[in-house]
Amino acid sequence: MSHNLPAKFSFHTQLLICVTLLFLLTVNLYAQNATTDNGVSESKEAQIALDQKDYGKAMELYRKAAAAGNGDAMFQIGLLFRSGFGVPQDDAQAIEWFQKAAAKESDLAMSYLGVMYLKGDGVNRDPAQAAQWLQKAAVLGNGNAMSNIATMYLKGDGVPQNYTLAVRWYEQAALKDNSFAMLTLGQLYYGGIGVPQDYHIALQWLLKAANYGRAEAMNNIATIYSDGLGVPQNYAESKKWLEKAAENGNALAMGNLGIMYLNGWGMPVDYKMAIQWFQKAAAAGDPASMGAIGQIYEKGIGVPQDYVQAIKWYLQAAQRGDKVAMNNIGVYYDQGFGVVKDEQLAIGWFHKAADAGSTLAMNNLANKYLKGDGVPKDISVAISWWKKAADLGNADAIRLLKEHGQ
After folding, report:
1. How far is residue 224's CA from residue 227's CA, in Å, rounded to a whole number?
2. What is the pTM of this model?
3. Residues 296/276, Cβ–Cβ less than 8 Å
4. Is the domain 176-268 a CATH 3.40.250.10 member?
5. pLDDT category, 42, cuts 50, 70, 90?
6. pLDDT tens, 367-378?
């Protein structure tokens, strides 16, 4: 029942989160689509009022413009209700005005409606309706809608899963300077998801996203250089990109810098710097770094060995869903490290970790059932846990299944 210090970078792979950049500019609300409807002069005056933060006057003028059929004004009224500027916040009113604006072919209104239905924000979540609105907005050239409909095709959320369409829409969104689309294309080519794996193309998309300030992309570029994927391995270049990402608040990059110092990649080993970066990453919410600090205290690397401190950090990581930390807590209760030995708590933590996908925990449970340690002895249950771990590629589980004739 063991676990290892981190020896590999964390690559940002949150491909399936639909991110929108649509939400409200708090000071300067404006339409990107000029209209020729009546009410243009009132709409322009309303914009001036918004710039002056006179939301009441802006709403009055927008209502006049909307009454004259101005779609831009309808959209802006929806934004004001969405934000609660000058009026009580009211999502139902916002949706009503966005629908009116959408009827006037406002791609921004369509895109907002799509995101609200996708997230269930002010309405019952309805991915199918979200996809319809986002598709309409995307066809009209809205880059955010293109990126969001691409993510829906990638996930199969509200539409049939279709990697080809996902990539096509991400590419269109990238042409509209959508940095999330650039980031995701880089991740898709990195992982070979829906496209042939190509680290060179991945790097090109990630560099574009990084140029727009995407810290996730900077972290991913660092991973490519550290592992020498499609480029010569270059720790100095990797460190440079990690530092850029960390400066932009990326917790994974902070943790990866900790890994570099811990392992001495391209530099002398420096445990003090490693701990400092892990602590920064932990403060920024990175559970893997919390777990790394736990392992540092457990093994006494650069600090006095301290099981109590170790399990404290493991618990923080586990609370944030870290399966490695969950397994480690199980080991601590099983062995009585820093806590009173408690086989039932150990088994409970092994189950939590296994449910979260930890093959180490699956093997630990298998060993428990094999020996009847804290549970009834049951070789069939042990084999079932080894099979689960083996299905996830765990070499020890594969070996043990063979040894037991499976």
Report:
1. 5
2. 0.82
3. no
4. no
5. confident
6. 999 999 999 999
